Amino acid sequence: MSLDHYYLLGRSGLRVSRLALGTMNFGTGGFHAAYGKTEDEARPILRRYLEAGGNFVDTADFYTAGESETILGNLIAEAKVRDRVVLTTKFTNSVDPGDPNAGGNGRKHMIRAVEASLRRLRTDYIDLFLLHTWDRITPLEEVVRTFDDLTRAGKIRYAGLSDVPAWYAARAQTYAEAHSLVPMVSLQLPYSLIDRAIEQEHVPMGVNLGLGITAWSPLGGGFLTGKYRRADQGLAGEGRLSGTGPAVQSWTDQQWRLLAALESVAGKLGVSMAQVAVNWVATQPGVASAIVGASSAAQLDASVTALDFELPAELRAQLDEASSVPPSSVYRMFTPAYQGWLVSAGVKVSDKPDEYAPAVRNWAPDEQ
Ligand SMILES: NC(=O)c1ccc[n+]([C@@H]2O[C@H](COP(=O)([O-])OP(=O)(O)OC[C@H]3O[C@@H](n4cnc5c(N)ncnc54)[C@H](OP(=O)(O)O)[C@@H]3O)[C@@H](O)[C@H]2O)c1
């Protein structure tokens, strides 16, 4: 499963590595400046990823105030890999707070954003163009139609979504299919052993509607490497999550217990905690690729070798249990415990849904 084994992204013909390289920390400006890297520091990270056979690179227009795209454009041109790389970027976040149309997901901004990204990335096409975040105002029909126009104009090859509710993605995909517009092929979402919220709605939706999930922060921003210690209301240790006081993110007792389970599994396998954490995410159902970040080529070494071993079922089960989140409201009805209780009470709904799976599968268009 090394990076030069490529997988289809969602229901598409686009072949991508199982691990993508995140470049949110390339550049030293804007929102991500506190942990940003200069072009000279970023170069060995991208090189290491490409040498390992990786072909899937992620950025966004607002990362480090546009510097991430600029650096990536320079480094890709320098390495002469533009065509080989599947270049992903995103739009939504405002580049000019004084101008209401300089951000959001409306057609005017989408077209402006694509042109600006093409300039910074020094290319004439984007392989995968993603809506970064639901803006809660633009009609989704406008977004889907603009994706279609941009594809036909040759500006982008594929379209996708990031950080949207599952109902929004489902309706966007259904609208595209119903009107023969280009479909969305991927969905970028937070997913790791410390954040499994997407499993309830987004994962089954993606699997059913052909959206390959690309998981961001698979290491929980570095927490799952095991390098942090508990401090008063925060974390102690070297890295971008360090800090204390009420303003920093709080970490739950379950997350610390999960860390202990992760350390134990890594010890049994003789690999690092980071490798186990990345392996777990990248091989979860519905996940097309995990987007790893790194502050140095040495850090990236741990992640790019994360798929060189198989996570045995019993050890995966230990991690699943330590990181599990209870299903909410209606989803409790589909747990084995609840279904078993229904059957024992004489209420037969579909006690063995797997028996019906072959018939259902015959209807899936990708298996025809
Ligand atoms: N769509 C979205 O809304 C969204 C949001 C966030 C991210 N993303 C994408 O996902 C990418 C990855 O996100 P992320 O950076 O949060 O991912 P991550 O892989 O969870 O965290 C990466 C960070 O962990 C630390 N780290 C990594 N390997 C390590 C090692 N072997 N030893 C010690 N520390 C290590 C480094 O930070 P330190 O050195 O500072 O500790 C590194 O920058 C981003 O670049 C971006 O492309 C998308």
Can you tag this structure with a few keywords?
NADP_OxRdtase_dom; two-stranded antiparallel ribbon; TIM Barrel; binds NADP nicotinamide-adenine-dinucleotide phosphate; 12 helices; disordered C terminus; eight-stranded parallel beta barrel; alpha/beta; 368 residues
Q: How does this structure look, described?
A:
The protein is α/β, with parallel strands linked by helices and 368 residues long. It contains 12 helices and 12 strands. Strand 4 (56-58), helix 2 and strand 5 (86-91) form a beta-alpha-beta unit. The chain is globular. Mean pLDDT is 92; it is low at 358-368. The structure holds NADP nicotinamide-adenine-dinucleotide phosphate. NADP nicotinamide-adenine-dinucleotide phosphate binds at residues 22-25, 35, 58, 162-163, 188, 216-222, 225, 227, 239-240, 274, 291-295, 299, 302-303. This is Aldo/keto reductase. Keywords: Oxidoreductase. It holds the Pfam family Aldo_ket_red.
